[in-house]
Amino acid sequence: MTRIFSGIKPTGHLTLGNYLGALRQWVAADQRPDEALFCVVDLHALTVEHDPARVRRLSRQVATLFLASGLDPDKCTLFMQSHVDEHTRLSYLLECTATDGEMRRMIQYKEKSARAQASGEGVRLSLLTYPVLMAADILAYGTEEVPVGEDQRQHVELARDLAVRFNQRYGQTFTVPKATLPDVAARVMDLQEPTSKMGKSGGPGPGVVFMLDEPGVIRKKVMRAVTDSGDGGVVYDREARPGVANLLDVLAACTGGDPAALAEGYSGYGALKRDVADAVVELLRPVQERHAELAAEPAAVEKVLRVGAGRARDLARPIVDRAYRAIGLLEP
């Protein structure tokens, strides 16, 4: 059996990009005869300025959307990162394995620290070191596959590097994981800025489709999506025509088609946008309906998380204890 792990930060309302690039892929994974763990990585939400009440609220919402998207707690393990101490226990050992240079080369650190400095905010040390905590999230479970979006591939590569280095220095301890990405829509782009990722942390921008947006809101955002100048028609070209390519990627991910082949069926942008809007509304409709049902029963969601945390601890503790012995620490 292959062990799978992945997680999402509760730093904003989940987007269409989160669903296509992560959640739907996770649901497919938990239908396989594998051991899958999916986590709300709430500790990662503390690396930047935040409202504690909002983090708690979003953590519950993300967990509920995990279930609403189709993840079955009888087939996979769903839990809250902060409920399993092994994540932070292992993170320090990996900080003793990583280097300052590796942390400062991480793309997301460069981007987020630059924004923080530009706004006059201090850069938290945890923003620099959180990729190590992410590596601990993965390595604590003997993870073999990490289903992620394209923007997270660098973090999985760091986890691989740290696992190999630890094993070479202190003896075979960790499984070396690999990233797996969906075939299309691995990185859904902002509908207004098609060269930027559709991110959940940037606020309610007009180019971001959230999983819980009303159908009318979704249609308005898609119909106002930026296309590309020129009269070359609908052509799938990510470099020269990023706006149209993004719409075709989304349509392909929703319908199971091929973006380039779908482009051949359109002579204008209007029809393409209408079809994309329809496809997104229908894709998210059952998820939204199930979310409403689950949100009315918060105790049931909390029970799933409690049971999941117990399972996760049982899996992680032997691996983390082995790492403590390997690096030279006395057993308590």
Description:
It is a single chain. Helix content is 53%, strand content 7%. With 332 residues, it is mainly alpha-helical. It folds into two domains: 209 residues, HUPs (Rossmann fold, 3-Layer(aba) Sandwich), CATH 3.40.50.620; 112 residues, Tyrosyl-Transfer RNA Synthetase (Orthogonal Bundle), CATH 1.10.240.10. The protein is globular and about 70 Å long. The chain starts with a strand and ends in a 5-residue tail after the last helix. 43% of the residues are buried.
Outline of this structure?
The chain has 332 residues and is mostly helical.
Sum up the structure in keywords.
332 residues; mainly alpha; Rossmann fold; Tyrosyl-Transfer RNA Synthetase; 2 domains; two-stranded parallel ribbon; EC 6.1.1.2; ligase; Trp-tRNA-ligase; aminoacyl-trna synthetase
